Amino acid sequence: MYPLVKTCCRWLVLYAILFAATPTFSQDSIRYTDAASLLLTGKAKATREAYQRMDSAETRGMPAVIRTLARRSAGIAVLFETNSNIIRVRWKLAGEVYLPNMTPIGHSGLDLYCLKAGKWQFVSVARPARGTDQDQVIIQHMDSSMKQFMLYLPLYNSVEALQIGVQSDALIRTPLQPGINKDKRIVIYGSSVVQGASASRPGMAYPALLQRRTGYDVINLGFSGSAKMEAAMAVYLATVPADCYVLDCIPNPTPDLIRERAYPFIKYLREHQPAVPIILVETVFRQNGYWDRQLGQKVEKQNEETRKTYERLLQEGHRHIYYIRSAALIGDDHEATIDGIHLTDLGFSRISDALMPVIRKAMREEKGF
C-alpha cells in the first residue's frame, strides 16, 4: 500500500502546483467587447473593414501589392479604459505569416500599453499561436482602479475580428479623456521601415513611438517594398487630413524613379495641401552597403536624386518643406539593423529621435502647435 500512497501523494502535490499556477478565473467570468466599438486611432480615414488602413475602394488604380498591404493593420491601435483585473483578447488573423526578419509578436501579435502619470508605459503582449483564431490572456492580477489602455494591432498581418475581454462585473468604455489627441495628425508615407520591419513588437515601430512621444494621432502608411511615389498615392495622400506629412519613401524606388516621380509627387501634395508642412526623409543607408559597393552606390544615388528634388522645390518657391539627411537617422555605430536594412528596436528609437525635433519645429512654425 505504501508505494500506492506515495504515488497518490506525488500526484496530489503536482495537481496543487498546477492548480496554483492556473489563472483563477473561468471563461464564463469574462465579458467581451468588439474593439471596433471603442476608439480606434492610427487610421487615415474610415474604412468598411475596421482594422485595415485604406478602404479597398480607395486603392483601386494602385498596384496590386499596395491593395494587399493596405489591408494590413500596421499602426492601428484601440484606446479603451477599464477597471478590470484582467484583460483577455480574442483576434482573428487573415492567415499565417512567416517572416525571417520579424518576430511572430511583431507581425501577428498584439501590444498593450497603459497611460500612467501622463506617459504611455508598456504592459504586455499577446503572442500569436499557430492558426488564425487567437485567444489569450494579455495581463491579469491588476488592481481595480480605472486605467486607460492602448492596444496596438499586428504590423504585417490583417485582423479580421478583435474582441477585448474584461471581468463580467468590470467597466470597459471609450476613454473620457483619450491619451492620444486625434485632432492633431502626423501622416507618414513610406517603405517597410515605416510599416514596422523589423520591430520586436507593434508598439516599437517608429510611427508608434512618435505617437506615444507626441500624443498625436500618427498614421502609418508604410508599404513594404512598395512605396514608389505613384501618382495615385499622391492623390490619396492629398485627401488625408494632416497637420504634417512625413515622406520616408526613398528606400524603394530606383534613382531613375526618384528623378521621374519625386518632384511631381511632392508638388501635387504641396499644391493640394499648401499649408501643411512636408518632411522629406532620405533613405536609411544600408549597413551592408558599406561593403557591397554596388548597393552602397545605389543608395547614394537615391539620396542624391532626393536632394536635387528638394532643392528644385525650394528654388521654385514651395514653402513648408523640411529635409532630413540619412546620416542623422540611425547613428554611426552600425548596430541599429537586423539585416543591414531593416531596423531593430534600437534603430527605431534612433530614427524617432531624429524625426521628433523636425516634426515639432515644422508643426510649431507652420501650424502653431
From TrEMBL:
Transmembrane feature ranges: none
UniProt-listed InterPro entries: Ester_Hydrolysis_Enzymes (IPR051532), GxDLY (IPR032740), SGNH_hydro (IPR013830), SGNH_hydro_sf (IPR036514)
Keywords from the named record: Signal
Domain SGNH hydrolase-type esterase N-terminal residues, every copy: 31-171
Domain SGNH hydrolase-type esterase positions: 184-360
Signal peptide bounds: 1-26
GO MF entries: hydrolase activity, acting on ester bonds
Keyword Cytoplasm: no
Gene3D superfamilies assigned to the protein according to its UniProt record, in alphabetical order: Galactose-binding domain-like (2.60.120.260), SGNH hydrolase (3.40.50.1110)
tRNA processing listed as a keyword: no
Pfam families to which the protein is assigned, alphabetical: GxDLY, Lipase_GDSL_3
PANTHER family xrefs: SGNH HYDROLASE-TYPE ESTERASE DOMAIN-CONTAINING PROTEIN, THIOESTERASE 1/PROTEASE 1/LYSOPHOSPHOLIPASE L1
The protein's name: Lysophospholipase L1-like esterase
